[in-house]
């Protein structure tokens, strides 16, 4: 599938604002008290502020490195820090987010001790930092968990499997800014219209094709791949008309951009573990879980190659995992190779 097509037999609500869509989704829920709606509205506001900074980054002297490294050992871009502080500041205002954990910070940050602070959030404030200076799409990735007790927030409130997520999604800052979100029962995309200052529903009920003919992987790491990943990589590049191979290779190097293309067109994105980093590179809480939750809600799949991403019980905030993400058929093929089989 080369272009997005809405799911059939649905009454279109294209053009609704994100806030209206969220409110409509909460109507009729007996547990709804407005806190979850308030949290997601705050997230949308933060996305608007970040997109404003991204759009004028070159003019506002926020391009380039700060000179610091984050907890991951990665160089911190000025825009990384701007995005992180914007999210933290906005999420703390309404008192509904008890704490947030960021890829940029070693520990969680407590944002509210109010009784109605019922949620915690994990996010990668600006995915694709290495591409900022060359004007390639970047994004924000987020996941929301419910705090299941009335006591002070603790790190263990974040260490839950992805099946416990209440919402997840991403914002991609590309040719347009798009906010893609799921609460577990469908995936919807909202495009930012700067003339009215709102995210408007543009892609309702996104579904991942069962199979695609595109693969996305960093071929520069191939010398360090395990033999099973090398066999899979050779297979997708093999010539077989019946299975529509060879697949087309597409790799941007920004997870948000590669995952967004895979979501809309099908295929597979893979970032496997290798001999240098057998545990993988991508962060479970900030990247793998949110995308796994979203892709499964859209009919896709997400796996380490040996287990479902959403079943993993985290043991630390910055835990890393291998990730294969995309169409169910393509991910199943990848898993078969990891098991030593051939589809």
Walk me through the topology:
Elements: H1 18-26, H2 35-55, E1 65-69, E2 75-77, H3 78-91, E3 97-102, E4 109-110, E5 119-127, E6 138-146, E7 167-173, E8 177-182, E9 187-193, E10 198-203, E11 214-216, H4 227-236, E12 248-249, H5 255-265, E13 268-271, E14 282-283, H6 284-297, E15 301-303, E16 320-321, E17 323-326, H7 328-338
Helix pairs in contact: 1-2, 2-3, 4-7
Describe this structure in words.
There is one protein chain. With 343 residues, the protein is α+β, with helices and mostly antiparallel strands. The chain has 7 helices and 17 strands. α1 packs antiparallel against α2 and α4 packs across α7. 26% of the residues lie in helices and 23% in strands. It has 2 domains: 18-203, Fructose-1,6-Bisphosphatase, Chain A, domain 1 (2-Layer Sandwich), CATH 3.30.540.10; 214-338, D-Maltodextrin-Binding Protein, domain 2. 46% of the residues are buried. It is globular, with a radius of gyration of 19 Å. β9 (187-193) and β10 (198-203) form a beta hairpin. The model has no long low-confidence stretch (mean pLDDT 90). The protein starts with 17 loop residues before the first helix and ends in a 5-residue tail after the last helix. It has an 8-stranded mixed sheet, with helices on both faces. A 5-stranded mixed sheet has the order 12-11-13-17-15, sandwiched between helices. Strands 1-2 form a two-stranded antiparallel ribbon.
């Amino acid at each position: 599938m080369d272009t997005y097509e809405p799911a059939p037999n649905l009454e279109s609500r294209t053009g609704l604002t994100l806030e209206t869509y969220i409110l409509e989704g909460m109507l009729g829920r007996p547990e709804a008290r407005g806190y979850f709606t308030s949290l997601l509205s705050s997230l949308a506001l933060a996305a608007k502020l970040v997109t404003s900074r991204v759009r004028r980054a070159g003019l506002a002297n926020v391009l380039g490195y700060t000179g610091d490294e984050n907890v991951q050992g990665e160089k911190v871009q000025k825009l990384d820090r701007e995005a992180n502080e914007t999210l933290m500041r906005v999420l703390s205002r309404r008192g509904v987010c008890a704490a947030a954990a960021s890829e940029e910070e070693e520990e969680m940050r407590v944002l509210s001790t109010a009784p109605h602070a019922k949620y915690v959030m994990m996010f990668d404030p600006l995915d694709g930092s290495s591409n900022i200076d060359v004007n390639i799409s970047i994004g924000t990735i987020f996941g929301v968990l419910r705090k299941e007790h009335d006591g002070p927030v603790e790190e263990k409130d974040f260490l839950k499997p992805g099946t416990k997520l209440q919402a997840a999604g991403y914002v991609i800052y590309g040719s347009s800014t798009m906010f893609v979100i799921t609460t577990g029962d469908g995936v919807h995309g909202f495009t930012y219209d700067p003339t009215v200052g709102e995210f408007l529903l543009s892609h309702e009920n996104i579904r991942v094709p069962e199979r695609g003919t595109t693969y996305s992987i960093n071929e520069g790491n191939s010398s360090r791949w395990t033999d099973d990943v090398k066999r899979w990589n050779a297979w997708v590049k093999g010539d077989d008309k019946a299975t529509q191979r060879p697949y087309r290779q597409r790799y941007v190097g920004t997870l948000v951009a590669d995952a967004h293309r895979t979501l809309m067109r099908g295929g597979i994105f893979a970032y496997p573990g290798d001999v240098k980093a057998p545990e993988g590179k991508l962060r479970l809480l900030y990247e793998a879980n949110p995308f796994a939750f979203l892709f499964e809600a859209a009919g896709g799949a997400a796996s380490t190659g040996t287990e479902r991403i959403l079943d993993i019980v985290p043991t630390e905030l910055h835990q890393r995992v291998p990730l294969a993400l995309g169409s169910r058929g393509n991910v199943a093929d990848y898993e078969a190779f990891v098991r030593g089989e051939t589809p």
